[in-house]
Amino acid sequence: MITILKEVDYEQPQLEITPSDAACATKHAWARVPVEPSPAERTQLKDKIRQLLKEKNAVMVSHYYVHPDLQDLAEETGGLVSDSLEMARFGRDHAAQTLVVSGVRFMGETAKILSPEKRVLMPDLEATCSLDLGCPVDEFSAFCDAHPDRTVVVYANTSAAVKARADWLVTSSCALEIVKALKDKGHKILWAPDRHLGGYIQRETGADMLMWNGSCIVHDEFKAFELEALMREHPQAKVLVHPESPEHVVALADAVGSTSAILKAAREMDAREFIVATDNGMMHKLRTLNPGKVFLEAPTAGNSATCKSCAHCPWMAMNSLVDVARVLETGANEVQVDPTLIPRARVPIDRMLAFTSALKGGADAGSLVPMIGAA
Fold first, then answer.
1. Which of 4, 53, 104, 353 is the most buried (most CB within 10 A)?
2. Residues of the chain with CATH 3.40.50.10800
3. Cα–Cα distance for residue pair 18/28, rounded to 1 Å
4. Homologous superfamily of the 133-217+339-369 domain (CATH)
5. CA-to-CA distance for 333 and 320, rounded, in angstroms?
6. What is the rounded distance in angstroms from the CA atom of residue 245 to the CA atom of residue 226?
7. How many angstroms separate the CA atoms of 304 and 263, rounded?
8. Count of CB atoms within 10 A of residue 159's CB?
9. Alpha carbons 286 and 295: distance in angstroms, whole number
């Protein structure tokens, strides 16, 4: 069952659009892509950021979808490039008292929830997420109140207020295991916000899931018809798909999974060519770690497309070296979370981290069912 809620208006203030983004302007007319610095400016900015990180006792964490410069610099300075789960865990456990989160707003909020005593900075506080925007806490709370018999499971791509309303938090790397464990203990699930990821989990686990109607504006644009055409052009290529993609795209995949799972599949699968259906920010890490392999972007364009250049999140693209240097130097763009929300929002996050840590330590998912509790 899918509950359809009102359409969400993604309109933002008008900002500069570069010529390379003109093809996408009809859909994301508000998206601002920072001006690319010259090679000399890039070197100067990186050197400045390295120095500021030392001076400010700070560390960078960057998502796979942000600019390659921000990914490389995070790793070069002792930080981390990863998915949202590992970013959260790393920020919590690192000794640095300032965290610079290159990603989108919910990632900065999660870092602050787990480390309320630390200062969390983001290059651009306007960098958000369609899944977060599409799940307003008032409407979501009413949805939960209408179904009190269900265990509330929310995806990481949600606000701190929505997390505070949840029983469990999941990411795409652990959602299957957690929902299956809940199902095995008799829980009925209320799921939010991504309907494609929820549908994939429901098909894989057979869980009783009531869905919120949200989607990622990037993954929702992948096209099965055009993907099949590209597969015919590259018959030896393996298809790697993020489960936020539509069902017909997922059905064509050789491997389905989170960003970390896609990296693992690319490394381990016996193939030279891959077609990848996720944000094209992933291509940098895929190509860096697999220099002898070819990675092709799954199509968002074609006869059935509504967007001609949608394979990159416009909010992830708002992160820049210039803004990282600026926030480190000035302390601007500090992430604030209502202190009254933090204890409640931390509960589902800590449950997820405890569950995944046990799995990572070698525990079988079935043995972790007791920590779930009976319905």
1. 104
2. 34-129+315-330, 133-217+339-369, 219-297
3. 12
4. NadA-like (3.40.50.10800)
5. 13
6. 14
7. 29
8. 24
9. 8
pLDDT one-digit tens code per residue, 194-250: 999 999 999 999 999 999 999 999 999 999 999 999 999 999 999 999 999 999 999
pTM of the model: 0.88
Q: Which pair of structure tokens corresponds to residue 141?
A: 């709370």
Q: What is the pLDDT of residues 311-356, one digit of tens each?
A: 899 999 999 999 999 999 999 999 999 999 999 999 999 999 999 8
Relative to beta strand 168-170, strand 209-211 is unpaired
Query: DSSP secondary-structure letter at 6?
Result: P
